[in-house]
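Go through this:
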Amino acid sequence: MIKILCIETATDICSVAVSIDGVLASLVESNDQNSHSEKLTVFIEEALAKAGVPLTELSAVAVSMGPGSYTGLRIGVSTAKGFCFGLNIPLIAIPTLQSIAWGAKKFMPENTEVIIPMIDARRMEVYNAHYSSEILPLNEVKATVIDDEYIAQFDSSKNTLLCGNGAFKCVESMGSLPNITIVNSHCSAENMILLAQQKFDREEFESVPYFEPFYLKDYIAAQSYVKGLR
């Protein structure tokens, strides 16, 4: 049996799942902000215990690779790499937006032509990509500002599903369009399971020492307001 530990920390949600032969065996998650470093290893222990899977029986570890929160991605990837190195098992990287799109399939109207998962990138910016109804990529991942120019260029003639925590930035400007459906499909390790199993079967593994998260944009440190660090 193929037993995969799935780790999702790309957004505010900290989520861990265990799958057995591509089927969900356990899921532990929380949307408490800024808690990934405290909860991730605890959630992993809980998920393995609920699934009845000893750590030593894991076949691989899958991790959400981004884009998303810089800090969240670093925590998730470093934890996944630690387990893979210690257990000598493969590392699988799952595109975060593709995972969100998979999770949105259960909300998808039958005539949907395009799925656009969106991750909140602060202000009116989102990380997004376009996928077919079969969750095949139609373009590259990009950062987009939801403004009048974007709305004017948007192809509203196609039946489109907007999903993810960034999609609600479009509610006011696009929610009334007849061919647009907006749903809340959050990041969850459960959405990674099928993609992780497919990559395992194809042996699409990452280099444990050299793999890095997909940040999309360069990290820019904010000014510190802690006394002595200004």
In short: DSSP finds six helices and eleven strands in the chain.
